[in-house]
Please model this.
Amino acid sequence: MSEEKSLNFLEEIIEQDLSSGKYTRIVTRFPPEPNGYLHIGHASSICLNFGLTKKYPGYTNLRFDDTNPTTEETEYVESIKEDVQWLGFTWENELYASDYFPQLYAFAIQLIKKGLAYVDDSSSEEMAVQKGTPTEPGVNSPFRDRTIEENLQLFEDMKAGKYPDGTKTLRAKIDMSHPNMLMRDPVLYRIKHAHHHRTGDTWCIYPMYDFAHGQSDSIENVTHSICTMEFVPHRELYDWLITQLGIYPSHQYEFARRNINYTVTSKRKLLQLVNEGHVTGWNDPRMPTISGLRRRGYTPESIREFCDRIGIAKRENMVDVGLLEFCLREHLNRIALRRMVVFNPVKVVLTNYEGEGEWLDTENNPEDPNGGTRPIRFSKEIWIERDDFMDNPPKKYFRLSPGNMVRLKSAYIIRCDEVKKDEKGEVVELHCTYIPESKSGQDTSGIHVKGTLHWVNAADALQVEVREYDRLFKVEDPTDEEGDFKDYLNPNSLQVVTGYAERSLEQAVLQDRFQFIRKGYYCLDTDSTPEHLIFNRTVTLKDGWAKVQKNEAS
Ligand code: ATP
Ligand code: MG
Model:
């Protein structure tokens, strides 16, 4: 789909590494912390890591970065696996940082024995003071000069559960006046008497991110460890630990986070929306989570295309959700089955139509030569959109109005003869004449009309629930506004309406993608039952993004 593109900076590095013989194959990993569901930002990282090993020899691991027992749950692990697979990627190994706890403990002992780590009794407040500031050097902890023997004993006692939370830590012994604050004796281990979703109560000391991530990379022989820009200052510590431990030299590379407008992409914030009931769950179709997008009707192809188009960069920027929707429409236009659904109906009575009715044939997707056709029922009484009729139309109104003719999609041309109104002046019925010779595909009438309307047969239309979604937030960046980000939720992000659908939609299944003609793209919701069909609006038909692009190009 995409034209020949220049290499991104990671591809350039990898091509050099392969051609210089530094590596014969590359290993990447996607390392989510299982403390929430994956969102569209994670999709960028997934497509990047897995995409690189699709393009170059090598493989990608899925590694759960589960070193923080209090926020992690098995439910999240399961959802992450489902989401990565759904996006179309296969991992080489399913790995857990928690499986490395014994190895990480051994690494810590190794550092203590080299005189490069010590047990500190300072509280976190005291440590913060010791650290100094970016412009002032820090001061040594009073516990920094404990002997190796003492440190080994204390660390063992920490592991054995002899001390309460927060009373001791293991710190690297580097340099309290280092220009990089993260190098000022960073904490490697803390005490936490907490149950872990995989290791249970085996451990009461847990490694910090910086003492788990790089070491896990190294254990797995990861060649290119890709993370987001906020870890740039951590790279020095990443390298220091690998060098001091003498383990496999993985390398860290950073790229900018991808955020999209009118939503939030932070698991912590998304969790608040779930917990406080602003949405129905992590997979609410308004959520920017992979599971929300899936339920909304997004396709993995469209998300991959979006990630590919935005590519990677070193500078953070906000991506227009319009681009995501553009990629979605492009894909759905090719695959969606066309169906007719009327939302706000007005009855049309074809006064000259005789008999029971008939079956007409209509194509499923004009964009797909193999899309086939389906039968639709046509008879004397049909429904059209109330909006498609006007009593006193302006010039160039090509829809239905008194005396005017339109084509009913895949059916006949009709002319409006008479408008029936109730006492309040509301239109209740339109009496029309149909032109028998104007049947679609066999039209000999010689009549030319400008408007084509969608419609449904009144007698057997299905009443369905339609959930029309809009942006979750009213502003582009709710985290950049005054007050709480939740103050900017869009109160109209969900509107439930009734639709009158052609009968064939009875057979809809979850995987189906539909275009309700002249309305938008829709799919069945997971709440739907055969007795009560529920459709989600995936995206409207209007293509705001393409217009913007065209204007920019001209
Ligand atoms: P969040 O802030 O939503 O909790 P996180 O970075 O803490 O995100 P992790 O589970 O640690 O979530 O992320 C797994 C991987 O996905 C990391 O490598 C991280 O850098 C990457 N990632 C997370 N958010 C984004 C984003 N918005 N854009 C690109 N990559 C991201
Ligand atoms: Mg994180």
